[in-house]
């Protein structure tokens, strides 16, 4: 009993200072802690399971046993009388990665009988020990957050699907696996038995961007069997996990309105054709695609499956100028296969969408009269020579042309195909001094290809004022007029413009 106290005292006092190696001044069991690691989270105690390498020698240095010769580190339970008494005592208070030498006198070793042909009677034994692992049946999965992201709207729950990077090490620091070497995340359901029990527990509550340290005792990992050649039996596992992605297989898209314009007379519906800019990012904020780098909007029909289902849904109910953020689970994006090198399998995608304009192929010219003189007896019609001023803008207000620049009064004979169809239509039925605000869909404007300064498929807004007109210009005069009034450069570009759909009469 007295010896026990001596050993206990020396080990605890020694371990509280990891600086020096305490000198062994011992009666019976002599312990030399010749290497103590700087960090020692816990020390072995009675009731703990331990895993260690050892070389056993006689006092003269001759080896009679070694875990290395046996192939595997030894797994043992302390304080239950299953070990040689001297060893059981000598292994207490030990840190993982500590190395110590334990000298066991015969009466705490194999005594006066010895052990078969291997250990002669009354042998003093010297054990060189390297501790690899300590755990206890009462251990829990221990998690420690290393970094927390700034905002965390959602954290891992059971039945969620996650993608994470990890480094997996044994308690002694040996790396047994890492997602980084494979250059791809580990993708799995949580709480559904796809993972070892301890990992299913340890991932709960994690946020995307969080780095967490998870320590899993062997009975919640691979237990007695271990796994493959990398994970030995009864190994505690340490995971450093970086959560990259998170969703639930039942998720729908989530929509967040970023900017909603004050006035919105019309919202997108299925069948509309939309032009929008977007930034596409992953949940961790990394951009995988953006329309801005191409200097042109992304253009598509809505609700016809031309884009991934999640975006198709997100494009509904939008106003011109609106900004919307949509978060799309993989089943409504690129699914389990991902897309090329750009989208990894099972990735959640976030799109910030900015609507530039939209129209419907059924749209006609939208004419709003903003000023009409009281007396308006005569109005313009086909074959009339009309003179007018106008400003042309995109729907976001970007000015494309103004006839006021250089006082450039416009003139055209209606129905001669000299201006875009939408403008020709909008100039009919006008009286002198009348003003109109006209919205022209691209199929009555510059079509899919656009024109210099006019983006393809752009909706145009014309602010028109009729200055004067001459009725029914005869064909002969028209020829002369055309020679004297060549169509201006801006309008000349329309003549061969592509039409998205055949023109419909107003
Ligand atoms: C035991 O001997 C081997 C070489 O035979 C050596 O690598 C090891 O460090 C020694 N000590 C322990 C505790 O394994
Ligand atoms: C995993 O190890 C690599 C290389 O040491 C390191 O760059 C990375 O940050 C580690 N990951 C985590 C989640 O700790
Ligand atoms: C997702 O959307 C579908 C169809 O719109 C609906 O039936 C389902 O209940 C939604 N699921 C959730 C979790 O909101
Ligand atoms: C255009 O109008 C017709 C008739 O109202 C309708 O059947 C068709 O779906 C519309 N097309 C689009 C693209 O909305
Ligand atoms: C986009 O426009 C910018 C500025 O006008 C220019 O520097 C860049 O080269 C353009 N990029 C492409 C892909 O056309
Ligand atoms: C996309 O990102 C750029 C650069 O960060 C930003 O200027 C632009 O407003 C973003 N667009 C949307 C639709 O959020
Ligand atoms: C319009 O018609 C009315 C009567 O029909 C006539 O009095 C008036 O002078 C006409 N105005 C113009 C500008 O022709
Ligand atoms: C066009 O813009 C100018 C100012 O740039 C403005 O004076 C004029 O009233 C606008 N409308 C028309 C039809 O020209």
TrEMBL record:
Signal peptide (from-to): 1-17
Keyword DNA repair part of the UniProt annotation: no
An MF annotation (GO) of this entry: peptidyl-prolyl cis-trans isomerase activity
Catalytic function, reaction form: [protein]-peptidylproline (omega=180) = [protein]-peptidylproline (omega=0)
Any one GO CC term of the record: endoplasmic reticulum
PROSITE patterns the UniProt entry points to: FKBP_PPIASE
The protein's Enzyme Commission number: 5.2.1.8
Domain PPIase FKBP-type, residue spans: 47-135, 159-247, 271-359, 383-470
Statement: the UniProt record of this protein carries the keyword Chloroplast: no
InterPro entries in the record: FKBP-like_isomerase, PPIase_dom_sf, PPIase_FKBP_dom
Record's subcellular location: Endoplasmic reticulum
Keywords recorded for this protein, A-Z: Calcium, Endoplasmic reticulum, Glycoprotein, Isomerase, Metal-binding, Repeat, Rotamase, Signal
Top EC group: isomerase
Top-rank taxon, per record: Eukaryota
Stated role: PPIases accelerate the folding of proteins during protein synthesis.
PANTHER family: PEPTIDYL-PROLYL CIS-TRANS ISOMERASE FKBP10, PEPTIDYLPROLYL ISOMERASE
Name this polypeptide is given: peptidylprolyl isomerase
Native organism: Tetraodon nigroviridis (Spotted green pufferfish)
Organism classification: Eukaryota, Metazoa, Chordata, Craniata, Vertebrata
